[in-house]
Amino acid sequence: MDASDRRTAPDLGSGAGRTTTTDPGRGPVHPAGHSGAGGEGDAPYASSATEAVKGIGQLIGELREYATYYLSAKLDGFKVTGRNLGIYAVLGIVGLIAMSAMITTAVVLLLVGLALAIGKPFNPDQPWVGAVVVGLLVLGGLAAAVIIGMRKLTNTSRAALVRKYEERQRQQRIHFGRDVRGREADPATEVADR
User: Fold this and answer.
1) Which of 33, 88, 114, 161 would you call most buried, defined as having the most Cβ atoms within 10 angstroms of its Cβ?
2) What is the SS3 assignment for 100?
3) Which helix (H) or strand (E) element contains residue 22?
């Protein structure tokens, strides 16, 4: 295509000095650079609409890819967080077991040492005497601690309940002139009040 095949047509658009170049073999050229001559009765800008629809489809596909990428990244982040929490939980449980085993071992060594020390003065050595004495002392101490703790807990709870209901009865006397005990004790006043 040389310069003689092209002709210049005035642009009917907004620019006064603009011209568009047309090729007689191609048909009119769209301002975006698309040719409308496609044969078989195509409208002058039909290929432009088709390309726009394809472009929208590509944009939707791109958006879908980005959305799935984002969701996949979030899901993987949750998986990593869950895995880390699981690892820390297992490490915590193992540490707790190890610490309880160390404490148990220390207590056993202490009690065995005390039992052997108590059995040593006997002639010949009687380690079972020390074991019995230490066992009785430990079990008796635990039983006493449990009994004292339960009594204290029960008394504290009971005292709190008593204070609560005494306060409510005091409020009843302030608001109504009598409390629930006075109401139960004097049924005649209830009839007279009606």
Assistant:
1) 114
2) helix
3) strand 19-22
